[in-house]
Amino acid sequence: MKKVFNSIFVTLILPTLLLTGCWPATKNSDNTLRVLASTTFLADIAQNIAGGRVQVDSLLPFGTDPHAYQAAPSDVAKISESDLLILNGVEYEHFVEALLENAGGQRIIVEATAGLEPHSAEGNADETESGAGSEQEAGGTQGDPHMWLDPNLVITYVKNIRDGLIEVNPAGAETYQANADVYIAQLKDLDAWIVEQVKAIPAGRRLMVTNHEALGYFAERYGFEIVGAVIPSLSTDAGTSAKEMSSLIEQIKAAGAPAIFLGEVENPDLANQIADETGVKVVDDLYLESLTDGAPAATYIDMMKHNVTRIVDGLK
After folding, report:
1. Which of 119, 220, 243, 273 has the most CB atoms around it within 10 Å of its CB?
2. Is the pLDDT at 128 greater than 60, yes or no?
3. What's the CA gap between 232 and 248, in Å, rounded?
4. What is the mean pLDDT of residues 106-114?
């Protein structure tokens, strides 16, 4: 994939940038601090820490699935102009690799998950070492990157982003520290709210079937059992076999799982087929990978509250 992108960039994109003069000749010539996050939910988290000192932009637009994102030429310029680039890490942003190779300028890169131990890519709770050098697992990652779906883990995101902002802009250290403390308190309140909402679901019905393996950290934190996934992968950009479909149908029937849960950007066709075979509900309006431009998931906290409400309604 990386070689293909590089070839396209050199033969098609680079000449266009040079001819049109779109390539940034001088990075940040207006002395504006430019902070760029890979996704909308990361941009929102970072904006809460940055406050009014800095505008945080998202590389991906609203409603985009990072697993299947195809980089645009303008993305190279955005990264080239950035002073601070915030990534989730755990190889979540494969599309960024080629962009970084082709982007000019210098920047500080923060991986929000730094210091956290990801679940292994096999989808169980076994932990793997977080550092580089381990083999890539199924789904194209070194582990499960979906840590933001547990607000307690997002506290580490906040601390890493705060430190990155302080490094790139030491003059704002006091503001970033104060804003981070306030937002961490909000995340703890969110966690407590989720615990209360989940109590409405009888223990025997806390069974989840997902479209892809995205809700492992959420399930672990709040006491759900993951019965299975329509796409047995950590990425939506994968497939499933007839044998796997048949096996999942049997698992759903045996467990009595009430519903299949999908992210809004995911294709519901396979889930609907399984629902026809099992009689379960399909809840296809979760926001797992992206915020929305306005309600119902305008912020990370809004996104989590919407998802929890839909999950509780689907299971109780």
Report:
1. 119
2. no
3. 10
4. 97
